[in-house]
TrEMBL record, chains A, B:
InterPro entries: Alpha/beta_knot_MTases, RNA_MeTrfase_TrmJ/LasT, SpoU_MeTrfase, tRNA_m1G_MTases_N. Keywords: Methyltransferase, S-adenosyl-L-methionine, Transferase. GO terms for biological process: tRNA nucleoside ribose methylation. It holds the Pfam family SpoU_methylase. One of its GO terms (cellular component) is cytosol. Residues 19-171 form the tRNA/rRNA methyltransferase SpoU type domain. This is RNA methyltransferase. GO terms for molecular function: RNA binding; RNA methyltransferase activity. Belongs to the class IV-like SAM-binding methyltransferase superfamily. RNA methyltransferase TrmH family.
Length: 275, 275
Protein backbone atom coordinates (compact mmCIF):
# COMPACT_ATOMS: atom_id res chain seq x y z
CA UNK A 1 0.00 0.00 0.00
CA UNK A 2 1.59 3.23 -1.04
CA UNK A 3 1.16 6.90 -1.63
CA UNK A 4 0.26 6.11 -5.21
CA UNK A 5 -3.41 6.00 -4.26
CA UNK A 6 -3.44 9.53 -2.87
CA UNK A 7 -5.27 11.93 -5.12
CA UNK A 8 -4.42 15.49 -4.17
CA UNK A 9 -7.05 16.85 -6.53
CA UNK A 10 -9.77 15.40 -4.33
CA UNK A 11 -10.87 17.49 -1.36
CA UNK A 12 -9.55 16.45 2.04
CA UNK A 13 -12.23 15.12 4.38
CA UNK A 14 -12.50 17.92 6.95
CA UNK A 15 -15.93 17.51 8.51
CA UNK A 16 -16.44 17.51 12.28
CA UNK A 17 -14.86 14.38 13.73
CA UNK A 18 -13.59 13.00 17.04
CA UNK A 19 -10.50 14.58 18.58
CA UNK A 20 -7.46 12.36 19.15
CA UNK A 21 -5.79 13.05 22.52
CA UNK A 22 -2.36 11.48 23.06
CA UNK A 23 -1.45 11.42 26.75
CA UNK A 24 2.29 11.72 27.40
CA UNK A 25 3.45 10.16 24.14
CA UNK A 26 7.10 9.17 24.40
CA UNK A 27 8.30 9.05 20.80
CA UNK A 28 8.04 11.80 18.21
CA UNK A 29 7.84 9.14 15.51
CA UNK A 30 4.70 7.74 17.10
CA UNK A 31 3.08 11.18 17.17
CA UNK A 32 3.83 11.48 13.45
CA UNK A 33 2.45 8.02 12.70
CA UNK A 34 -0.73 8.88 14.60
CA UNK A 35 -1.11 12.02 12.47
CA UNK A 36 -0.76 9.91 9.33
CA UNK A 37 -3.34 7.39 10.56
CA UNK A 38 -5.71 10.25 11.40
CA UNK A 39 -5.34 11.77 7.93
CA UNK A 40 -6.06 8.39 6.34
CA UNK A 41 -9.51 8.41 7.89
CA UNK A 42 -10.53 12.05 7.94
CA UNK A 43 -9.61 12.91 11.54
CA UNK A 44 -7.87 16.25 11.83
CA UNK A 45 -7.74 17.49 15.42
CA UNK A 46 -4.90 16.24 17.62
CA UNK A 47 -4.22 17.18 21.24
CA UNK A 48 -1.01 16.35 23.06
CA UNK A 49 -0.81 16.05 26.82
CA UNK A 50 2.72 16.68 28.09
CA UNK A 51 4.71 14.85 25.40
CA UNK A 52 7.85 13.47 27.02
CA UNK A 53 10.24 15.51 24.94
CA UNK A 54 8.16 18.66 24.76
CA UNK A 55 6.33 20.06 21.75
CA UNK A 56 7.71 21.69 19.77
CA UNK A 57 11.01 21.47 21.59
CA UNK A 58 13.26 22.14 18.65
CA UNK A 59 14.12 20.55 15.35
CA UNK A 60 14.69 17.04 16.65
CA UNK A 61 11.22 16.18 17.80
CA UNK A 62 9.28 18.04 15.19
CA UNK A 63 11.45 16.55 12.47
CA UNK A 64 11.01 12.94 13.61
CA UNK A 65 7.29 13.44 13.89
CA UNK A 66 7.06 15.17 10.54
CA UNK A 67 8.93 12.42 8.71
CA UNK A 68 6.68 9.74 10.19
CA UNK A 69 3.57 11.75 9.35
CA UNK A 70 4.20 11.19 5.61
CA UNK A 71 2.63 14.49 4.64
CA UNK A 72 -0.01 14.83 7.37
CA UNK A 73 1.84 17.89 8.63
CA UNK A 74 -1.29 20.06 8.88
CA UNK A 75 -2.37 17.86 11.79
CA UNK A 76 0.97 18.23 13.60
CA UNK A 77 1.05 21.97 13.00
CA UNK A 78 -2.41 22.43 14.48
CA UNK A 79 -1.90 20.05 17.43
CA UNK A 80 -2.70 21.74 20.74
CA UNK A 81 -0.63 21.17 23.85
CA UNK A 82 -2.09 20.58 27.35
CA UNK A 83 -0.52 20.02 30.74
CA UNK A 84 -2.93 17.29 31.85
CA UNK A 85 -5.59 14.98 30.45
CA UNK A 86 -8.21 16.80 32.55
CA UNK A 87 -7.32 20.09 30.84
CA UNK A 88 -7.30 18.44 27.43
CA UNK A 89 -10.91 17.25 27.81
CA UNK A 90 -12.26 20.31 29.65
CA UNK A 91 -14.09 21.79 26.63
CA UNK A 92 -15.39 18.45 25.33
CA UNK A 93 -18.88 17.01 25.76
CA UNK A 94 -18.13 13.32 25.57
CA UNK A 95 -14.92 11.40 26.23
CA UNK A 96 -13.80 7.84 25.47
CA UNK A 97 -10.68 6.23 26.95
CA UNK A 98 -8.77 3.44 25.19
CA UNK A 99 -7.26 0.60 27.19
CA UNK A 100 -6.16 -2.95 26.50
CA UNK A 101 -6.82 -4.21 30.02
CA UNK A 102 -9.64 -4.22 32.47
CA UNK A 103 -9.58 -1.43 35.06
CA UNK A 104 -12.47 -2.41 37.29
CA UNK A 105 -14.31 0.80 36.50
CA UNK A 106 -18.10 0.78 36.20
CA UNK A 107 -18.11 2.08 32.67
CA UNK A 108 -19.50 0.76 29.45
CA UNK A 109 -16.87 -1.16 27.46
CA UNK A 110 -17.13 -0.80 23.68
CA UNK A 111 -15.16 -1.83 20.62
CA UNK A 112 -14.49 0.90 18.03
CA UNK A 113 -17.10 -0.69 15.74
CA UNK A 114 -19.67 -0.50 18.53
CA UNK A 115 -18.72 2.99 19.69
CA UNK A 116 -18.52 4.86 16.40
CA UNK A 117 -22.23 4.90 15.49
CA UNK A 118 -22.96 6.62 18.82
CA UNK A 119 -19.96 8.93 18.39
CA UNK A 120 -21.17 9.84 14.89
CA UNK A 121 -24.59 10.68 16.30
CA UNK A 122 -23.06 12.91 18.97
CA UNK A 123 -20.69 14.66 16.56
CA UNK A 124 -23.55 15.09 14.08
CA UNK A 125 -25.58 16.70 16.88
CA UNK A 126 -22.84 19.25 17.50
CA UNK A 127 -21.08 17.59 20.45
CA UNK A 128 -17.30 17.65 20.74
CA UNK A 129 -16.05 14.10 21.32
CA UNK A 130 -12.51 13.16 22.37
CA UNK A 131 -10.68 9.84 22.50
CA UNK A 132 -7.88 9.43 25.03
CA UNK A 133 -4.85 7.28 24.11
CA UNK A 134 -2.28 6.43 26.78
CA UNK A 135 1.47 6.25 26.96
CA UNK A 136 3.22 3.68 24.74
CA UNK A 137 4.21 1.31 27.55
CA UNK A 138 1.80 1.87 30.42
CA UNK A 139 -1.31 3.33 28.83
CA UNK A 140 -3.65 5.62 30.75
CA UNK A 141 -3.75 5.89 34.54
CA UNK A 142 -6.96 4.96 36.32
CA UNK A 143 -7.45 8.64 37.14
CA UNK A 144 -7.28 9.52 33.45
CA UNK A 145 -9.75 6.77 32.58
CA UNK A 146 -12.08 8.22 35.23
CA UNK A 147 -12.39 11.31 33.00
CA UNK A 148 -14.16 9.26 30.35
CA UNK A 149 -17.79 8.33 29.73
CA UNK A 150 -16.94 4.91 28.33
CA UNK A 151 -14.00 2.60 27.67
CA UNK A 152 -12.84 1.65 24.20
CA UNK A 153 -10.99 -1.61 23.71
CA UNK A 154 -10.07 -3.73 20.72
CA UNK A 155 -10.91 -7.25 19.70
CA UNK A 156 -7.38 -8.67 19.64
CA UNK A 157 -5.62 -11.98 20.10
CA UNK A 158 -5.53 -12.23 23.93
CA UNK A 159 -2.11 -13.87 23.76
CA UNK A 160 -0.74 -10.88 21.83
CA UNK A 161 -2.80 -7.84 22.72
CA UNK A 162 -0.09 -5.18 22.46
CA UNK A 163 -1.19 -2.65 19.82
CA UNK A 164 1.17 0.07 18.66
CA UNK A 165 -0.12 3.58 19.54
CA UNK A 166 -0.61 4.62 15.92
CA UNK A 167 -2.43 1.36 15.20
CA UNK A 168 -4.88 2.00 18.03
CA UNK A 169 -5.53 5.44 16.53
CA UNK A 170 -5.81 3.84 13.09
CA UNK A 171 -8.47 1.32 14.10
CA UNK A 172 -10.62 4.05 15.64
CA UNK A 173 -10.21 6.24 12.56
CA UNK A 174 -11.02 3.31 10.30
CA UNK A 175 -14.26 2.52 12.14
CA UNK A 176 -15.15 6.21 12.27
CA UNK A 177 -14.66 6.51 8.51
CA UNK A 178 -16.66 3.33 7.83
CA UNK A 179 -19.49 4.45 10.11
CA UNK A 180 -19.72 7.88 8.52
CA UNK A 181 -20.08 6.48 5.02
CA UNK A 182 -16.43 6.21 3.98
CA UNK A 183 -16.05 4.35 0.72
CA UNK A 184 -13.05 2.73 -0.92
CA UNK A 185 -11.35 5.00 -3.48
CA UNK A 186 -12.58 2.91 -6.41
CA UNK A 187 -14.88 0.02 -7.22
CA UNK A 188 -15.09 -2.56 -9.98
CA UNK A 189 -13.99 -1.23 -13.33
CA UNK A 190 -16.46 -2.93 -15.65
CA UNK A 191 -17.61 -0.59 -18.38
CA UNK A 192 -19.44 -3.55 -19.92
CA UNK A 193 -22.84 -4.53 -18.47
CA UNK A 194 -23.48 -8.07 -17.23
CA UNK A 195 -24.28 -10.39 -20.13
CA UNK A 196 -27.92 -11.27 -20.74
CA UNK A 197 -28.81 -14.94 -20.48
CA UNK A 198 -29.62 -15.29 -24.20
CA UNK A 199 -26.08 -14.23 -25.09
CA UNK A 200 -24.61 -16.90 -22.82
CA UNK A 201 -27.00 -19.60 -24.02
CA UNK A 202 -26.27 -18.80 -27.65
CA UNK A 203 -22.54 -19.17 -26.91
CA UNK A 204 -23.18 -22.53 -25.22
CA UNK A 205 -25.18 -23.72 -28.26
CA UNK A 206 -22.38 -22.71 -30.61
CA UNK A 207 -19.71 -24.40 -28.47
CA UNK A 208 -21.67 -27.61 -28.08
CA UNK A 209 -22.52 -27.91 -31.78
CA UNK A 210 -18.86 -27.44 -32.71
CA UNK A 211 -17.77 -29.98 -30.09
CA UNK A 212 -20.35 -32.36 -31.57
CA UNK A 213 -18.73 -31.93 -35.00
CA UNK A 214 -15.33 -32.66 -33.42
CA UNK A 215 -16.63 -35.91 -31.91
CA UNK A 216 -16.02 -34.58 -28.37
CA UNK A 217 -19.02 -36.35 -26.79
CA UNK A 218 -18.86 -40.16 -26.38
CA UNK A 219 -22.13 -41.90 -27.35
CA UNK A 220 -24.93 -41.20 -24.87
CA UNK A 221 -22.79 -38.86 -22.75
CA UNK A 222 -23.73 -35.57 -24.39
CA UNK A 223 -26.51 -34.53 -21.97
CA UNK A 224 -24.49 -35.00 -18.79
CA UNK A 225 -21.29 -33.59 -20.24
CA UNK A 226 -23.14 -30.56 -21.59
CA UNK A 227 -24.68 -29.92 -18.19
CA UNK A 228 -21.29 -30.12 -16.49
CA UNK A 229 -19.73 -27.77 -19.01
CA UNK A 230 -22.52 -25.26 -18.57
CA UNK A 231 -22.11 -25.47 -14.80
CA UNK A 232 -18.46 -24.53 -15.14
CA UNK A 233 -19.02 -21.68 -17.59
CA UNK A 234 -22.04 -20.17 -15.83
CA UNK A 235 -19.79 -19.65 -12.85
CA UNK A 236 -17.90 -16.99 -14.80
CA UNK A 237 -20.78 -14.59 -14.32
CA UNK A 238 -19.63 -12.78 -17.47
CA UNK A 239 -20.09 -9.26 -18.74
CA UNK A 240 -21.19 -8.80 -22.37
CA UNK A 241 -17.62 -7.99 -23.35
CA UNK A 242 -16.31 -11.13 -21.64
CA UNK A 243 -18.95 -13.29 -23.32
CA UNK A 244 -17.94 -11.85 -26.70
CA UNK A 245 -14.27 -12.47 -25.91
CA UNK A 246 -14.87 -16.08 -24.92
CA UNK A 247 -17.02 -16.77 -27.99
CA UNK A 248 -14.20 -15.32 -30.08
CA UNK A 249 -11.76 -17.70 -28.41
CA UNK A 250 -13.93 -20.73 -29.27
CA UNK A 251 -14.47 -19.47 -32.83
CA UNK A 252 -10.75 -18.96 -33.34
CA UNK A 253 -10.00 -22.49 -32.12
CA UNK A 254 -12.62 -23.86 -34.53
CA UNK A 255 -11.72 -21.80 -37.55
CA UNK A 256 -8.05 -21.19 -36.99
CA UNK A 257 -6.76 -24.56 -38.27
CA UNK A 258 -9.03 -24.35 -41.31
CA UNK A 259 -7.89 -20.80 -41.97
CA UNK A 260 -4.23 -21.71 -41.49
CA UNK A 261 -4.57 -24.57 -43.98
CA UNK A 262 -6.35 -22.30 -46.46
CA UNK A 263 -3.64 -19.67 -46.23
CA UNK A 264 -0.92 -22.30 -46.63
CA UNK A 265 -2.63 -23.73 -49.72
CA UNK A 266 -2.91 -20.28 -51.29
CA UNK A 267 0.82 -19.75 -50.72
CA UNK A 268 1.60 -23.10 -52.39
CA UNK A 269 3.24 -24.44 -49.24
CA UNK A 270 2.84 -28.05 -48.16
CA UNK A 271 0.14 -28.53 -45.55
CA UNK A 272 1.34 -28.79 -41.97
CA UNK A 273 -1.02 -31.47 -40.89
CA UNK A 274 -3.16 -34.19 -42.39
CA UNK A 275 -6.88 -33.66 -42.89
CA UNK B 1 -2.29 1.04 24.08
CA UNK B 2 0.44 -1.07 25.48
CA UNK B 3 1.76 -4.50 26.13
CA UNK B 4 0.04 -4.42 29.46
CA UNK B 5 -3.00 -6.08 27.93
CA UNK B 6 -1.08 -9.11 26.72
CA UNK B 7 -1.89 -12.18 28.75
CA UNK B 8 0.73 -14.83 28.10
CA UNK B 9 -1.22 -17.40 30.07
CA UNK B 10 -3.93 -17.37 27.42
CA UNK B 11 -3.41 -19.61 24.41
CA UNK B 12 -2.23 -17.94 21.21
CA UNK B 13 -4.80 -17.97 18.43
CA UNK B 14 -3.26 -20.45 15.98
CA UNK B 15 -6.15 -21.69 13.86
CA UNK B 16 -6.01 -21.80 10.07
CA UNK B 17 -5.95 -18.24 8.74
CA UNK B 18 -5.01 -16.28 5.63
CA UNK B 19 -1.34 -16.10 4.66
CA UNK B 20 0.30 -12.67 4.48
CA UNK B 21 2.59 -12.31 1.44
CA UNK B 22 4.87 -9.26 1.38
CA UNK B 23 6.21 -8.61 -2.12
CA UNK B 24 9.68 -7.03 -2.16
CA UNK B 25 9.40 -5.23 1.17
CA UNK B 26 12.10 -2.58 1.46
CA UNK B 27 12.50 -2.06 5.20
CA UNK B 28 13.21 -4.69 7.82
CA UNK B 29 11.32 -2.57 10.35
CA UNK B 30 8.19 -2.80 8.22
CA UNK B 31 8.48 -6.59 8.04
CA UNK B 32 8.67 -6.65 11.85
CA UNK B 33 5.70 -4.33 12.25
CA UNK B 34 3.70 -6.54 9.89
CA UNK B 35 4.54 -9.55 12.06
CA UNK B 36 3.33 -7.68 15.13
CA UNK B 37 0.07 -6.67 13.42
CA UNK B 38 -0.44 -10.29 12.34
CA UNK B 39 0.06 -11.59 15.87
CA UNK B 40 -2.45 -9.05 17.19
CA UNK B 41 -5.16 -10.67 15.13
CA UNK B 42 -4.27 -14.34 15.05
CA UNK B 43 -2.50 -14.50 11.69
CA UNK B 44 0.68 -16.57 11.81
CA UNK B 45 1.95 -17.43 8.32
CA UNK B 46 4.13 -14.87 6.55
CA UNK B 47 5.75 -15.21 3.12
CA UNK B 48 8.41 -12.85 1.80
CA UNK B 49 9.02 -12.32 -1.91
CA UNK B 50 12.57 -11.11 -2.58
CA UNK B 51 12.95 -8.66 0.32
CA UNK B 52 15.26 -5.88 -0.85
CA UNK B 53 17.97 -6.58 1.67
CA UNK B 54 17.67 -10.35 1.66
CA UNK B 55 16.31 -12.57 4.40
CA UNK B 56 17.98 -13.41 6.64
CA UNK B 57 20.99 -11.53 5.36
CA UNK B 58 22.76 -11.15 8.63
CA UNK B 59 22.20 -9.50 11.97
CA UNK B 60 21.22 -6.08 10.64
CA UNK B 61 18.00 -6.93 8.90
CA UNK B 62 16.83 -9.65 11.23
CA UNK B 63 17.55 -7.42 14.19
CA UNK B 64 15.60 -4.44 12.87
CA UNK B 65 12.67 -6.66 12.02
CA UNK B 66 12.80 -8.44 15.37
CA UNK B 67 12.78 -5.18 17.37
CA UNK B 68 9.77 -3.87 15.43
CA UNK B 69 7.95 -7.19 15.86
CA UNK B 70 7.62 -6.56 19.62
CA UNK B 71 7.72 -10.25 20.45
CA UNK B 72 6.04 -11.70 17.36
CA UNK B 73 9.33 -13.44 16.54
CA UNK B 74 7.73 -16.83 15.89
CA UNK B 75 6.18 -15.31 12.76
CA UNK B 76 9.52 -13.94 11.51
CA UNK B 77 11.31 -17.19 12.27
CA UNK B 78 8.78 -19.20 10.28
CA UNK B 79 8.53 -16.75 7.37
CA UNK B 80 9.20 -18.47 4.03
CA UNK B 81 11.20 -16.85 1.26
CA UNK B 82 10.21 -16.90 -2.43
CA UNK B 83 11.81 -15.49 -5.57
CA UNK B 84 8.58 -14.23 -7.13
CA UNK B 85 4.95 -13.56 -6.26
CA UNK B 86 3.91 -16.34 -8.68
CA UNK B 87 6.01 -18.85 -6.72
CA UNK B 88 4.67 -17.54 -3.42
CA UNK B 89 1.06 -18.24 -4.41
CA UNK B 90 1.68 -21.50 -6.32
CA UNK B 91 0.35 -23.80 -3.58
CA UNK B 92 -2.60 -21.56 -2.62
CA UNK B 93 -6.23 -21.98 -3.66
CA UNK B 94 -7.41 -18.39 -3.48
CA UNK B 95 -5.47 -15.14 -3.71
CA UNK B 96 -6.37 -11.53 -2.93
CA UNK B 97 -4.24 -8.53 -3.95
CA UNK B 98 -4.22 -5.24 -2.04
CA UNK B 99 -3.98 -1.95 -3.88
CA UNK B 100 -4.87 1.67 -3.17
CA UNK B 101 -5.49 2.59 -6.80
CA UNK B 102 -7.54 1.33 -9.68
CA UNK B 103 -5.73 -0.96 -12.12
CA UNK B 104 -8.35 -1.40 -14.80
CA UNK B 105 -8.49 -5.14 -14.19
CA UNK B 106 -11.79 -6.97 -14.47
CA UNK B 107 -11.73 -8.26 -10.92
CA UNK B 108 -14.08 -7.92 -8.02
CA UNK B 109 -13.05 -5.06 -5.72
CA UNK B 110 -13.69 -5.66 -2.02
CA UNK B 111 -12.99 -3.92 1.27
CA UNK B 112 -11.49 -6.10 4.04
CA UNK B 113 -14.86 -6.09 5.82
CA UNK B 114 -16.55 -7.37 2.66
CA UNK B 115 -13.86 -9.90 1.82
CA UNK B 116 -13.29 -11.58 5.17
CA UNK B 117 -16.61 -13.45 5.48
CA UNK B 118 -15.87 -15.17 2.15
CA UNK B 119 -12.24 -15.74 3.15
CA UNK B 120 -13.38 -17.28 6.44
CA UNK B 121 -15.70 -19.61 4.53
CA UNK B 122 -12.90 -20.72 2.24
CA UNK B 123 -10.37 -21.18 5.06
CA UNK B 124 -13.01 -23.07 7.06
CA UNK B 125 -13.54 -25.32 4.05
CA UNK B 126 -9.86 -26.20 3.96
CA UNK B 127 -8.68 -23.78 1.27
CA UNK B 128 -5.36 -21.98 1.57
CA UNK B 129 -5.92 -18.26 1.06
CA UNK B 130 -3.16 -15.69 0.55
CA UNK B 131 -3.18 -11.89 0.56
CA UNK B 132 -0.55 -10.06 -1.50
CA UNK B 133 0.86 -6.75 -0.21
CA UNK B 134 3.07 -4.65 -2.48
CA UNK B 135 6.26 -2.65 -2.09
CA UNK B 136 6.17 0.34 0.27
CA UNK B 137 6.32 3.00 -2.44
CA UNK B 138 4.95 1.47 -5.63
CA UNK B 139 2.71 -1.37 -4.47
CA UNK B 140 2.13 -4.45 -6.64
CA UNK B 141 2.76 -4.58 -10.38
CA UNK B 142 -0.19 -5.22 -12.67
CA UNK B 143 1.30 -8.65 -13.42
CA UNK B 144 1.31 -9.48 -9.71
CA UNK B 145 -2.29 -8.30 -9.35
CA UNK B 146 -3.18 -10.61 -12.27
CA UNK B 147 -2.28 -13.54 -9.99
CA UNK B 148 -5.23 -12.73 -7.73
CA UNK B 149 -8.89 -13.70 -7.73
CA UNK B 150 -10.04 -10.36 -6.36
CA UNK B 151 -8.73 -6.94 -5.34
CA UNK B 152 -8.73 -5.69 -1.76
CA UNK B 153 -8.80 -1.97 -1.11
CA UNK B 154 -9.50 0.21 1.90
CA UNK B 155 -12.10 2.84 2.65
CA UNK B 156 -9.76 5.79 3.18
CA UNK B 157 -9.76 9.54 2.85
CA UNK B 158 -9.22 9.95 -0.91
CA UNK B 159 -7.09 13.05 -0.29
CA UNK B 160 -4.76 11.02 1.95
CA UNK B 161 -4.93 7.40 0.87
CA UNK B 162 -1.36 6.34 1.67
CA UNK B 163 -1.50 3.51 4.21
CA UNK B 164 1.67 2.23 5.82
CA UNK B 165 2.42 -1.42 4.90
CA UNK B 166 1.91 -2.71 8.45
CA UNK B 167 -1.33 -0.78 8.74
CA UNK B 168 -2.68 -2.40 5.58
CA UNK B 169 -1.81 -5.78 7.09
CA UNK B 170 -3.37 -4.66 10.39
CA UNK B 171 -6.73 -3.72 8.88
CA UNK B 172 -7.01 -7.07 7.14
CA UNK B 173 -6.07 -8.92 10.32
CA UNK B 174 -8.56 -6.85 12.32
CA UNK B 175 -11.43 -7.64 9.95
CA UNK B 176 -10.38 -11.30 9.85
CA UNK B 177 -10.41 -11.48 13.64
CA UNK B 178 -13.78 -9.70 13.88
CA UNK B 179 -15.31 -11.95 11.23
CA UNK B 180 -14.10 -15.13 12.90
CA UNK B 181 -15.63 -14.21 16.25
CA UNK B 182 -12.78 -12.26 17.82
CA UNK B 183 -13.89 -10.59 21.03
CA UNK B 184 -12.35 -7.78 23.05
CA UNK B 185 -10.20 -9.03 25.94
CA UNK B 186 -12.74 -7.91 28.56
CA UNK B 187 -16.24 -6.54 28.88
CA UNK B 188 -18.13 -4.49 31.44
CA UNK B 189 -17.07 -5.20 34.98
CA UNK B 190 -20.38 -4.95 36.78
CA UNK B 191 -20.72 -7.63 39.43
CA UNK B 192 -23.94 -5.95 40.54
CA UNK B 193 -27.14 -6.64 38.57
CA UNK B 194 -29.17 -3.79 37.09
CA UNK B 195 -31.41 -2.22 39.74
CA UNK B 196 -35.09 -3.17 39.75
CA UNK B 197 -37.55 -0.35 39.23
CA UNK B 198 -38.99 -0.53 42.75
CA UNK B 199 -35.57 0.17 44.23
CA UNK B 200 -35.17 3.30 42.09
CA UNK B 201 -38.71 4.50 42.80
CA UNK B 202 -38.25 4.02 46.53
CA UNK B 203 -35.08 6.13 46.35
CA UNK B 204 -36.97 8.86 44.46
CA UNK B 205 -39.74 8.84 47.10
CA UNK B 206 -37.19 9.20 49.87
CA UNK B 207 -35.35 12.03 48.08
CA UNK B 208 -38.51 13.95 47.27
CA UNK B 209 -39.96 13.71 50.78
CA UNK B 210 -36.70 14.98 52.27
CA UNK B 211 -36.54 17.81 49.72
CA UNK B 212 -40.13 18.67 50.69
CA UNK B 213 -39.08 18.94 54.35
CA UNK B 214 -36.23 21.24 53.28
CA UNK B 215 -38.65 23.51 51.43
CA UNK B 216 -36.96 22.75 48.09
CA UNK B 217 -40.14 22.94 46.00
CA UNK B 218 -41.77 26.37 45.46
CA UNK B 219 -45.58 26.31 45.83
CA UNK B 220 -47.28 24.47 42.98
CA UNK B 221 -44.00 23.49 41.34
CA UNK B 222 -43.49 20.09 42.96
CA UNK B 223 -45.05 17.97 40.20
CA UNK B 224 -43.05 19.42 37.34
CA UNK B 225 -39.81 19.64 39.31
CA UNK B 226 -40.18 16.06 40.50
CA UNK B 227 -40.71 14.87 36.95
CA UNK B 228 -37.60 16.70 35.75
CA UNK B 229 -35.54 15.30 38.58
CA UNK B 230 -36.70 11.76 37.87
CA UNK B 231 -35.86 12.24 34.17
CA UNK B 232 -32.30 13.16 35.11
CA UNK B 233 -31.81 10.32 37.56
CA UNK B 234 -33.46 7.61 35.44
CA UNK B 235 -30.81 8.29 32.85
CA UNK B 236 -28.21 6.79 35.17
CA UNK B 237 -29.48 3.31 34.36
CA UNK B 238 -28.11 2.18 37.71
CA UNK B 239 -27.02 -1.18 39.05
CA UNK B 240 -28.33 -2.23 42.47
CA UNK B 241 -24.99 -1.27 44.03
CA UNK B 242 -25.07 2.14 42.41
CA UNK B 243 -28.66 2.75 43.58
CA UNK B 244 -27.62 1.85 47.14
CA UNK B 245 -24.60 4.18 46.86
CA UNK B 246 -26.68 7.09 45.65
CA UNK B 247 -29.34 6.57 48.35
CA UNK B 248 -26.51 6.54 50.89
CA UNK B 249 -25.28 9.86 49.51
CA UNK B 250 -28.73 11.49 49.92
CA UNK B 251 -29.15 9.99 53.39
CA UNK B 252 -25.77 11.28 54.48
CA UNK B 253 -26.60 14.79 53.22
CA UNK B 254 -29.89 14.67 55.14
CA UNK B 255 -28.60 13.20 58.36
CA UNK B 256 -25.03 14.45 58.36
CA UNK B 257 -25.74 17.98 59.66
CA UNK B 258 -28.08 16.58 62.33
CA UNK B 259 -25.50 13.97 63.33
CA UNK B 260 -22.67 16.54 63.34
CA UNK B 261 -24.69 18.84 65.58
CA UNK B 262 -25.56 15.94 67.88
CA UNK B 263 -21.92 14.89 68.18
CA UNK B 264 -20.86 18.49 68.80
CA UNK B 265 -23.50 18.88 71.53
CA UNK B 266 -22.35 15.67 73.22
CA UNK B 267 -18.77 16.99 73.19
CA UNK B 268 -19.90 20.30 74.74
CA UNK B 269 -18.62 22.30 71.74
CA UNK B 270 -20.45 25.31 70.34
CA UNK B 271 -22.56 24.49 67.32
CA UNK B 272 -21.03 25.35 63.94
CA UNK B 273 -24.17 26.55 62.30
CA UNK B 274 -27.53 27.95 63.22
CA UNK B 275 -30.58 25.76 63.20
Amino acid sequence: MTGSGTDRTRPAVQAAAPIVILVEPQLAENIGMCARAMANFGLSEMRLVAPRDGWPSGGGLKKGATAAASGATHILENARLFASAAEAVADLNHVLATTARERGQMKRVLTPAEAMPEVAGRVGGGERVGILFGRERIGLTNEEISLADAILTFPVNPAFASLNLAQAVLLNGYEWFKTTGGEPPFRENNPSPPAKREMILSMFDYLESELDLCGFFPPGKKPVMTANLRDILHRLDMTEQEARTLRGVFKSLVEGPKKARLLARQAGEPEQSED
